[in-house]
Design a protein that fits this description.
- Strands 7-4-9-8 form a four-stranded antiparallel sheet, with helices on both faces. The chain has a three-stranded antiparallel sheet with strand order 3-2-10. A two-stranded antiparallel ribbon has the order 1-11.
- It folds into two domains: 206 residues, Triger factor/SurA peptide-binding fold, CATH 1.10.4030; 104 residues, Chitinase A, domain 3, CATH 3.10.50.
- Strand 5 and strand 6 form a beta hairpin.
- By secondary structure, it is α+β, with helices and mostly antiparallel strands.
- The longest helix has 28 residues.
- The protein is built from eleven helices and eleven strands.
């Protein structure tokens, strides 16, 4: 089966408003289990102090979003693994995102008057309703596991609403139009054979040179038969390989860049020769030089990237030389060892 899904890291979304904390419940395994005063200051952003309680809540909320998916995909120890080959654990990566979002929330809050941003009566009513919904959707054990109470949830939602309004103000004049040339995508089918095997304990071992040659010979055979029959998918599947697909644009610089460069020189329906890469083999067939479905997805991604780039530039100017400090020892006490899985409130 082909898979065109593009994986992206999920962080605290700046564009989310009050709805960010509604509609979910939690099924924790215990309380917060943290050996520290929740009212200790874990982070300062300019003149604002952020308590451990607030930072903990936001970190645990993010854990809850990842827990079910990560458990099923990577096991219960998912948070201690380097899932994205970033040189840090997933827990460290999430906490880094959370700290950055806290910084941005407070910087935006400090500059809200400059952009005519205010919390209206309508905002207050929506925040109060969202706070009530969240507290009702979670039992006492869940709330305790996240250090959540009415005052904290209301403050976080208020900060998010301000953040969202300043975000929109910063980006109100950004041009997010995407030309056809920018969005155009080529798509190819591919199979891949790794030169390493992984045992039950997660230990990787490189296969022997003779086995690598066997794999190479098999790919050569698949290529020859696919070129003759014109049916790449069936030929690959008959040989025991699952076919995936990948789309790319003229300016894409992704982990498939070397393969993209080869595909870029091929004609539609061409099958490549065996492609030797570091650690394995690829074999590809070019499916389209103008994949409309992929282009539509790319158009949305490019437009979103333009917004992201514009916000980063505007935010850095807003932040200026403001001092940001984190109590690393205190922040290190926040871990994901206790499971906290989010579920739809309707499933409770």
């Amino acid at each position: 089966m082909k898979n065109k899904k593009r994986w992206t890291a999920v962080g605290l979304a700046v564009v989310l408003g009050v709805s960010v904390l509604t509609g979910c419940g939690s099924k924790p395994q215990g309380n917060s289990n943290i050996d520290a005063d929740p009212n200790e200051v874990v982070m300062t952003v300019g003149g604002d102090e952020v308590t451990l309680k607030e930072a903990y809540f936001l970190a645990k909320w993010q854990q809850a979003q990842y827990q079910t998916f990560a458990n099923s995909a990577y096991g219960e120890d998912w948070y201690n693994q380097d899932l994205f080959d970033e040189g840090v654990t997933f827990q460290e990566s999430i906490k880094e995102q959370v700290a950055k979002e806290i910084e941005r929330m407070y910087i935006c809050k400090q500059h809200m008057d400059e952009y005519g941003v205010e919390i209206t009566d309508e905002d207050r009513e929506a925040i109060a309703a969202a706070t009530e919904n969240f507290l009702n959707a979670n039992d006492d054990a869940a709330l305790a596991a996240m250090m959540a109470d009415e005052e904290l949830v209301e403050r976080v939602l208020t900060n998010y609403r301000i953040y969202n309004k300043v975000y929109n103000a910063l980006l109100k004049d950004v041009d997010t139009s995407v030309s056809d040339d920018e969005a155009r995508q080529k798509t190819y089918s591919y199979i891949y054979q790794s030169f390493t095997t992984t045992d039950e304990d997660g230990n990787s071992t490189e296969v022997s040179a003779s086995q690598q040659q066997t794999y190479y010979n098999t790919f050569e055979d698949i290529a020859a038969k696919a070129k003759q029959s014109g049916d790449f998918d069936q030929t690959a599947e008959d040989a025991g390989y699952s076919v995936a697909s990948h789309s790319f644009g003229a300016t894409d610089d992704d982990s498939f860049s070397d393969i993209n460069a080869i595909a870029d020189k091929m004609a539609v329906n061409d099958v490549s020769d065996v492609i030797l890469v570091d650690g394995g083999l690829f074999l590809i067939k070019l499916d389209s030089v103008n994949d409309e479905e992929a282009a539509q997805s790319a158009r949305q991604e490019i437009a979103q990237q333009k917004l992201s780039d514009a916000f980063t530039e505007a935010y850095e100017a807003l932040r200026g030389e403001e001092t940001i400090q984190i109590d690393e020892e205190l922040w290190a006490k926040v871990t994901f060892e206790e499971p906290l899985a989010a579920v739809n409130a309707s499933d409770e």
